[in-house]
Automatic annotation (TrEMBL):
InterPro entries: AAA+_ATPase, ABC_Ni/Peptide_Import, ABC_transporter-like_ATP-bd, ABC_transporter-like_CS, P-loop_NTPase. It comes from Mesorhizobium liriopis. PANTHER family: DIPEPTIDE TRANSPORT ATP-BINDING PROTEIN DPPD, OLIGOPEPTIDE TRANSPORT ATP-BINDING PROTEIN APPD. Gene3D superfamilies: P-loop containing nucleotide triphosphate hydrolases. This is ABC transporter ATP-binding protein.
Amino acid sequence: MSPPLLIVENLTVSYPSAQTPALSDLTLNLQRGERLGLIGESGSGKSTLARAVAGLLPRGTSVAGRIEWPALNRPAEPGRDIGFVFQDAGASLDPVMRVGAQIAEVVRADRNLSWHEANKSALDLLAAVSLPDPATLARSYPHQLSGGQRQRVAIAAALAGEPALLLADEATSALDTIVQAEIAALLDRLVRERNMALIFITHDIALASNLVSRIAVLQDGRLVEEGVTHDVITRPSRPYTRELLAAHWELPAP
Ligand SMILES: Nc1ncnc2c1ncn2[C@@H]1O[C@H](COP(=O)(O)OP(=O)(O)OP(=O)(O)O)[C@@H](O)[C@H]1O
């Protein structure tokens, strides 16, 4: 069996001046191409885990434990090995730069290409995220796009470095239900086509259940349950998971 993409072992993270750790003794691994959902109530440590994996914890945060990338044989480079998509795509785009140029700039930085090649790659990426007429869209500014279109642009930028892992932190939460489903379907297609691993952080268990093969449940910074999506959803072993599921009455049968 090939080595895991990511190993997180006994990870404990404490923010400066916080009374209790945001993550405690958390162990988890991820295979290449695997899709993992991270669920848990607000403040349970989901984003902290994503930030720790991406090396984006604020200065002064104390970190104990191991984060390793056996399949890469070296530490992961954020941006290149890990792509990020956050809730507020608008905030991650430069308002005064045309979207094509923004993506081309990320491509150039991550893949060391000429401007000509990077511009061509940017158009390919805009097409890959199913944006119609990429050439026209590339000349638009972020404010000229809808929220769903901006999120597609953010996903295109996240793909620019051809990452092995896509980290989506509440990537669909700010969108209306139909657009959420479209973006989830897009992520599903992209991770399969590009054999990327996915960590999908969400409050929407129903949405996650259609997208991920494994679910990890966080409570107060601890991993309290982990398993195959179908098993966690149909036979949760912990009362906390049952409560989370019960709160999602609209959950379709997986
Ligand atoms: N920069 C920070 N400094 C101090 N404490 C923080 C910081 N960021 C998060 N925390 C605290 O760490 C804990 C975990 O927060 P985190 O954002 O990881 O949870 P979450 O599950 O992602 O929550 P949400 O679903 O609301 O985004 C919370 O108690 C939070 O208040």
